[in-house]
Structures are given as C-alpha cells and as structure tokens.
Amino acid sequence: MEVKANGPNDESGRIPDGPTKGRIPDGPTNPMVTPLLTDLYQFTMAYAYWKAGKHQERAVFDLYFRKNPFGGEYTVFAGLEECIRFIANFKFTEDEISFIRETLPGSCEDGFCDYLRGLDCSEVELYAVPEGSVVFPKVPLLRIEGPIAVVQLLETPLLNLVNYASLVATNAARHRFVAGKTKMLLEFGLRRAQGPDGGIGASKYCYIGGFDATSNVAAGRFFGIPLRGTHSHAFVSSYMSLDEIVEKSLQSSDGSSSCEDFVSLVQTWLDKIKWSNSLRGVFVETNQSELAAFTSYALAFPNNLLALVDTYDVIRSGIPNFCAVALALSDLGYKAVGIRLDSGDLAYLSCEARKFFCAIEKEFGVPGFGKTSITASNDLNEETLDALNKQGHEVDAFGIGTYLVTCFTQAALGCVFKLVEINNQPRIKLSEDVSKVSIPCKKGCFRLYGKEGYPLVDIMTGENEPSPKVGERILCRHPFNESKRAYVVPQKVEELLKCYWPGISGKAREDLPPLKEIRERCIKQLEQMRPDHMRRLNPTPYKVSVSAKLYDFIHFLWLNEAPVGELQ
Amino acid sequence: MEVKANGPNDESGRIPDGPTKGRIPDGPTNPMVTPLLTDLYQFTMAYAYWKAGKHQERAVFDLYFRKNPFGGEYTVFAGLEECIRFIANFKFTEDEISFIRETLPGSCEDGFCDYLRGLDCSEVELYAVPEGSVVFPKVPLLRIEGPIAVVQLLETPLLNLVNYASLVATNAARHRFVAGKTKMLLEFGLRRAQGPDGGIGASKYCYIGGFDATSNVAAGRFFGIPLRGTHSHAFVSSYMSLDEIVEKSLQSSDGSSSCEDFVSLVQTWLDKIKWSNSLRGVFVETNQSELAAFTSYALAFPNNLLALVDTYDVIRSGIPNFCAVALALSDLGYKAVGIRLDSGDLAYLSCEARKFFCAIEKEFGVPGFGKTSITASNDLNEETLDALNKQGHEVDAFGIGTYLVTCFTQAALGCVFKLVEINNQPRIKLSEDVSKVSIPCKKGCFRLYGKEGYPLVDIMTGENEPSPKVGERILCRHPFNESKRAYVVPQKVEELLKCYWPGISGKAREDLPPLKEIRERCIKQLEQMRPDHMRRLNPTPYKVSVSAKLYDFIHFLWLNEAPVGELQ
Known about the structure:
The structure is a homodimer of 568-residue chains.
Chain A: H1 40-51, E1 58-64, E2 75-76, H2 80-88, H3 94-103, H4 110-117, E3 125-128, E4 134-135, E5 142-147, H5 148-179, E6 184-187, H6 196-208, E7 213-214, H7 217-223, H8 233-237, E8 250-251, E9 258-259, H9 262-274, H10 288-300, E10 306-308, H11 314-331, E11 338-341, H12 346-364, E12 373-376, H13 382-391, E13 397-400, H14 402-405, E14 416-422, E15 425-426, E16 443-449, E17 455-462, E18 474-477, E19 485-488, E20 492-495, E21 498-501, H15 515-528, H16 531-534, E22 543-547, H17 548-561
Parallel strand pairs in A: 6-7, 6-13, 10-11, 11-12, 12-13, 17-22
Antiparallel strand pairs in A: 1-5, 1-14, 2-4, 3-5, 3-21, 8-9, 14-15, 16-17, 16-20, 18-19, 18-22
Pathway (chains A, B): Cofactor biosynthesis; NAD(+) biosynthesis; nicotinate D-ribonucleotide from nicotinate: step 1/1
Family (chains A, B): Belongs to the NAPRTase family.
Domain Nicotinate phosphoribosyltransferase N-terminal (chains A, B): 36-163
C-alpha cells in the first residue's frame, strides 16, 4: 500500500495556499486519513442502506458540540481544511474494498463492492463556519448533505478531524488570553502529545489559536509555522570543562576582526562580573561544565544564544555564566537573545534575572542588556500563567507543552454528528437529557451584531424562512426553554455557514485560506467578542437561539415522536 | 515528498510479524514519523556538537517516567515496535536536509549537511523492556547509547512514541481490571481521539492493554485487531415506517426455505409478545421507524443483529422491537446477537432487558434467548464501570470511547530522556525537587521475584557490578531515601533491558513479537502482580531500588555537583 503525504505543496515546505475555486485540494496532511479511518458501523449501515435500496436517499447531518470546553463560554472552530482535503479525495482502493468485503459479517454481495468502487463525494455538499471562527454550542460547525450511505461513512473522520483541532485551538486561545497580547507564546508539546500527529496537529492548531511558534520541526515544514528552540539540560551536562573547547576563535559580527581566544574573553568577563560593584557577592564559583556549554553554543550560534540557565543553580551559576558569554559576544558585535528558566519559582527568578541584566547594563554600559529576553517553560498552563501575572514577573516568552497539547484539563470536545433531515423530512433525536435533544431540519445559521459591534446572539432558522435583516426586529428563542426569548434589531447580520464543498450542485466554492489568514481571523474574532463572554471566571454565556417558527416546529416534532408514559 | 505507509505488510492487511533477527524492520506505521518529527533544539544542539567536534562522543540516555498515571501503582510499557521501526529507518532525505539548512539560525556550514546526509542509527544501541511489560517509575524503559548528536535527535520522537502508547495501554489495562476478565471490552474512541493517529494508536495500544476489539476499521487493517460495530441512532431515525422495506424476503439460515414476508413475520411476533402472559402491559405501541430499522438491518445481516435500542424508549419500544425481530430470525434458524444501550441508567436497563429476554425464553421456548448479549456504551470510564459493578448489572460487553482513548483523567505520561553517561563519565541531573534528580550511570536493571512468585522489587545496578543471583541475598536501597532499604533473596531474577537494536555492536537482536503476543504478555504480567499493587484505591507502591554501590555513587556525585549555599 502506498500513500502520499500531502503536507507541503512544494519542495520548500512552505504552507500550502489551499485550493482555488474549482481545483481539487490535496489529500489530508496525514496519509493515514483514508476512507477506512471510520467506525465499522458506518460500513455495516452503508451495506444495510444499500441492501434496502435506501443508500441514495438524501440526508442532512449537522456536526456540532453541546458544551464549550475548559469551563469557558467560547470555542474556536478548526480542522475544516483537513475535512475538505479528506472529502475531496474520498475514494476507495481495491485493497480497501477487499478488506471491507472480508470484514463485513456474513456474505457481502458483489454489488456493494461495485457501489463502493464508484463512490466519491461528488454528490455531497458541505457547508461550514469559516475555520478560525469563534463558535458556540448547538450551532452546526458543519452541515453535510448527500446520499445517506456516503455521508454516514464521513461521520467518524469528520468528527475526528474537527474535535481535537477545535479543542486544542481553543486551549491555545485561552492561554493567549491569560498571557496577554505582548508575550511570545511557544508550543513545546511534541514529546508529550497523544501520538505523532497529535503533536503535528497541536502545532498547527495552537498556531491558529494565537501561538507564535513551535518547537516541532515537522510542523514547521508542513505548515510554515515559525520554529524555535536552542538547547536542553543534556547539552549542558554533556560538557565537563572549558578545556573541551578546542576551536576557540570567533570572527566579529561585521567580519572586520577575529577573537582568537573567545574562551578567555568569556572568563575575563565572568571575573569582571564577579567583582563588579553592584554584583559582588552574588556568586562565588559558577559551574564550569555549564560555562563550557554556553560558550560552545555561542561559538556555533553567535547571533542566537538563548541559554537554559537552571541545570545547576539559576542565580549563582546559570545567569552569571550566560552574562559572561553574552558580554563576550557583545564585544564582537553580537547580541545574545536571552535565557530560559525551566524550573523553580519563575516569578521570583525572572525578576532576579531582570535585576541582574539591568545591573550589567548600568555597570558595563551595554545599551539594551537590561531588556535581554527571558523565556519560561516548566509545566505551564492557564492557571500558572494567571498566578504568574498576579505575582508579577519579568518573563517575555512562555514555552508551553503538556497541558496545552494534551488539553489536560479537558482532553476531549464532544462534537456529535446528527441526522436532521432525510428525504426532506425533518428528524429529531430525543433524549431524557434535554441538552442531548437535537435540533431538527436543514437550517440557516446567522450571527446578529448589536450597536456596539459585538456579536449578540446566534440564531438558527428553518431553511425556507427569510434571513434576518439589518434593522428588522426578530424574535430569538431559546430552543428548549420557552420562557427565554428576546427581540433583537441586528445592526449587522452574518450568515455563518458557507459552501466549502458544493459537490455537483453548481454552487460557488469558498476558498480555503492559507494558515496565516485563518490565524488572523481567529485573533480578530476573539478580540471582537464582548469581554464578559471571555473572562476566565464566571463568563457570561453567549446566547444561541432559534426563530419562533423553528421553535414551534421542534416542539411539535418532539411531542409527535416521544412515547406517552403510563405511570403504574 | 513521497512517503510510504508501512502498516500492513501484505495485501491482506494482516498484522505484521515484526522483523526477524537481522532483517531491517519496516518504517513507522504513520509515515509522518520522520527524522524531522523532533524539536528544533535537537538540531541546534546537533549543530553545536558538530561544530565543537563533540558529535561523536558516546552518550547513554535513559528514557523513563517519574510517576505512575491515574493514581495507580503500575504502568504498561508500549510503543517499542514503533521506536525500532523509526530508528531502523532513520535517514534524512535531501529535502529534509535543505529544510534544516534554511531553518537553523545563522549560517549553517556545508559540512553539517554532509554529516546529516551520512547519518543513520547504525552506531546506536537500544535496550528496552519488552513491549507489554508492567513497569515502574525511575527504571529505564529504554536505554539508548550512541554518538551524542544522533541520540539527541532521537529524543523527541522516542518520547512521543512511548508516552501516549504507554499511557493509553495502562488506561486500557485499568479498565479491564475493573470490568473483570469475562466481559467483552470494545474500544470505540476514534471520533473523540486526539487526531487521526491518536485514534489509530489508541486502538493498537488498548488492544495490548487487554481490550478485545475496536470499531476503528483502519486499525483493524493495520494491526489485525478484531473489529466490531453495527448501527447508530441515525440509522434508526433514517427510517419512517415499515412501508419503506420493499425487499421483504429472507432465506432460512440453512438455505432450505424462504420467508416471503419477513416484515409480517416480525409484526406477528411483536403482537405475540405484546399479548403474552408474562409481558402483557409492558408496552403499548412501539416506534415503527425503529421497528423498520431493526427489520431492515436484520435483512442485511441476519446473523449479526445487534440493535441499538435507546433511540426512543428502551423498555417500551427498543427491547420489544428487537425481540420481535430476533424471534422472527429465530424462526428462520438465525440467532440475533443482542442489544446495545447508549443512554440512561445502564444498571437498571440492563437488568430489565435481561428479565425481558428470560421471559421470552420461557414463554416462547427459545433456548438461550435469556442469554442474549447486552452491550453498554455511554461515556463509560473506570468510575462508571466500578459503580455499575456495585449496583449489579447484566451487561456483557462495554464499548468505551472518549475517556479511554483521550486518557481523560490524566492526558499525559511524563516520560523524560536523561543523559546518564558521556565518554564513560556518569552524569546526573540535579533538581531542588528530589523526585526530578536523575539516576546516573549506564545501568543494569533487574526484577527480583519472591517465594510466592510475585515480583518483589526492581533493582538498578552499575553496569560493571555482578548481576543479582537467585538465592543470593542482596541489599536493595531506595535511591534517595537513606533509611529505606531491605535485603532480598530472589527466587527468580529477570534482566529487564534487552537489546532490540544492536547497531554495529554485533550483539544479538531481540525479535519484535507480533501484536497478539505483546497483548498476551501484558495480560500475563498484570495477572502476575501482587493484588495489593493493583487495587484501585490506595494501592501499595511497588518498590524500585538501587544497589548499595550505586546508591553511594549517586550521592557522591550529587554532593560533587551541587553548589554549596551561602545564607545571607
């Protein structure tokens, strides 16, 4: 079996631009995303539909979630491009058809294999909220229409491609919200992610949610995401002493001169710092293996020294060693980037580091040294970022891994895929739990904006109802609570669902924007929300509603389908 | 860029047998697992090592975790085969090398690209605990030796491949423990998994941890895992009435006769049940779209009817409808499999269903009908399984998804990768948090068994110390707590680390066993543990120790490296 990885479109590994109208998009980034990446019951159902001659009946399914994650009141929708790449290339190979034939229980008729052989998504239409949008419970993220058998086969892969993507993008957005706009946020989660493309997906969708860069080289190549990273503790402890450094010369930044013994220059600076007026007594002997590691790294990357300073002792070894190397680099016209703290009290240590840097700037007259960058990276999450803010800190960049990429506080988003119409007949899924009752009908979905420019409410309407109009009063009803309703006069009306896969309907296809545009959309949408929906503690729920007509219809259908109880 | 998916070894999609001695294993199952699937800092470090002429220095790294997950006292090790597939095929393409050259900060020398071009894992040796073993904190799961630059490049992918694999296998084992040996456990998590191969990985490693089957067709094909699944709520609600069923005939199981109107046969049975002595009054009118769906499914799969009975009302509609169809099938010599419950009070509903089935068996004289299988599948996890056990239930099979595959209660295992020796010099990583101090030296690792056949303690020794011997008393010391120590006279000694990748050392290579053997090993190892280590509440920690000699050496090195404080 040979499959193609379709991540980068060209040799350079640059971000794919997405298909233009009419062009078939490339296949999924992960070549394991095939039509077999689905639950067996989709095939048994497809067979049963086919056997009953029902497989071509036109069905409409909504993909939506019921509850915002992480105790918040918003969600970022992501994963759409991979969904479109999947359905655009949906086609069974002969090997796959043989496998299904062997796997289906009982005797599978040849005709079904022929049916699978001819199957693609040309008769499917997919409508979606644009990727990177802020979205809310119950409102469809995707509406998929088509022959029931093929749309069922799509259920599991679409859920898989949207669930984690949206969850981790939302998590990233929440981390960005707490960290604030000015901080650099780095995604460092690959090693702890749930499998290889858990890592690659995390890098992509955290970037959409507002992160600035990733450590994951494969994601950098697939998606053009900026890459960051310098060295680990192992690098530091792999050195024993400065004697190990054989090649000691370093050319100046402008190439005009050369320092023959950079190691001695570093040692001279370390001595100057040690006996300086303002820093005298802060440290005695720094760790020499650490000093050797920083010096060696600086010789390899004189313009990019970002030193991990906590292998032995941050204040008494790591920071002085870094400063000695940074000042030696400065003599040669290079500017060190900064330090990384990976343990201990990050608020305290970052403030001490800042003081140290400012003292150096003053004492040795090195302009800008006080602003040397401080990165922190030890098991960070929303709570620890919030605590750091409250304590006060001097961190410029945060490297966040485990909690971000595995969505530790809530590891799954519960998107579901529900039949809402078949053969133009609306369908409802009942449940004793009202929050699990589905909203029937092929629906239009709109976001209504108020006078202050904030989104006020999302409203779902029956497909044939007139759309809400700017300046026209409309009644918005809670779908299940009859007493909750409000009139709205929208200042702006946004239709949420756009056509990303028209099939053979002849409709225009929305472009899939490049990753950077998706990220910008996300950032802009988050900024546009009313602040009380966004706060971490007790956020106000955003309102999701249905039209009066749809409300009446839901409840008519519900009464119609639910059995009448008999108390005994 | 073209990459090959190497999951199935042959057309049939059967489980790969693993390489035999001397053969190069196939590449990783997920073709996205390439040498670029690593953190950028591995490349910057490799460059700095290369630039310092240090890249060939021989280093030893341990991969281990510090704490068992899920509040338990054991972990199942998994992911080894994928690690070996990865290192066996570790090789850069020209595209990848160009990407690294563009990505490294500053000017990357040509010599480094030449170095990468020639790089593979032939000089690397990898020792590991066999996959499917029960393992404990601090003891290396993998010990990797080789030139420091290449072993650093392996760090992130090896962690990625082991972390989630071991976490989810452990989660599966814990679910199996609560469910008991006799229940069928089905993994249903694909739609909620963290990305496509989060789903595929979950299916593989849950199978290792003791699950019986998966719904994930791709995983079935890649790994030969048994597949299960029948139909969803959408299938039920896609039908409106029995009139939709056009092709109503069904041949008997033995082919001797044919029923021309299976629909009428079903209706007749529903009437008989309704007015039977023991079931009279249980239900009035069942839902006809549900009855049509079950009937249609039975016509497609007469030997495999497993009906989802909770779309409308379990007791008053789903179960009677299923029984009517099952009895009609029985008339034709077929045996229905059973029902699935996906909502409501599973303990109560399963008991009611069992009563109903037993009443049918008695009333209509259908032998075995009382034993009709009951599957349950609504947001199940360890806690709900435990609660069901306490309440009493009649469930035969559990379908478990979200909580299992995303490891909801703890979404990450914190495996780390620490340098323990370079150029034959032991290295230690210090930390103010004692649990984070690494155990230095290239070590031997042994499991010592007691008289009753249970494992008693794991012990790590310096590489050149004699191995523990059966019948010989040995002192086992806690690595960091001087007062915790015990003499042990082992009845059996098992060397834990085996050579799975000898590189060019000429050592014999352990076979990678087929998946089923890994699963059997896991089940056997779990059964072999002393019960108090395994219980859900307050389990006894299993002891992990070091030899007296290694203990002394750790503490000598620690004092040597740690700076002496100065109180001011």
